User: What shape does this take?
Amino acid sequence: MVRNERYRKNAIGVRERHNERKNEAYSNPDVLLEYSGQNVVFKTCGAPTYAQQFDRMVAEGAVSTRGLKPDAYVFDEMVFDVNTEYFERHGGYEYAKKFYAEAYELAKQIAGGEQYVISAVMHADERNREASDRLGKDVFHYHMHVIYLPVVEKEIRWSKRCRDPTLRGTVRETVMQVSHSKKWPMVPATDETGRPVLKKDGRPRLISSYSL
Assistant: This one.
């Protein structure tokens, strides 16, 4: 299973501290920091913080925030989460590392390229209490967090005020715009036959395109 969440810049620090294991203690008693050395990092953040890496990419022109509101969602997180029993049946930790290495390749495609991935880490230090008690040994719930910037290619055109009439309306430059809503627009839901699902008022029910 993969789920996708969006975050504003001023809220991403909470995810960073969790994903990068920067907290000294966790409310979740199943996080065993003594095992955090087994976590597998597929992409390391290039700056001290996610927010600083975002600012660096904007400053370098790798991404654009043109047209964004101050409180816009500028980070997305994909969480790849597979049933613990699946890994136990197929080889545990070593199999999980290979599995998520392949999953990370998919994540890069979804993000539009690894250059838009801020951080990717497989957690191998969260104990599955039920499975551990049942099997009589420590069993960990392997999953992967991928923080990325939701970007879309946007063409910037010359305006009607351009002095050169031959340039008006033509493409002036192309930028990679940060935009969660454009990366994952809302689209009409359909049933198993392909017909639109309607709400009680007769209007189409919209769902995030990510879920498709």
Strands lie at 2-8, 40-43, 73-81, 117-123, 143-148, 151-157, 171-178, 186-188, 206-208.
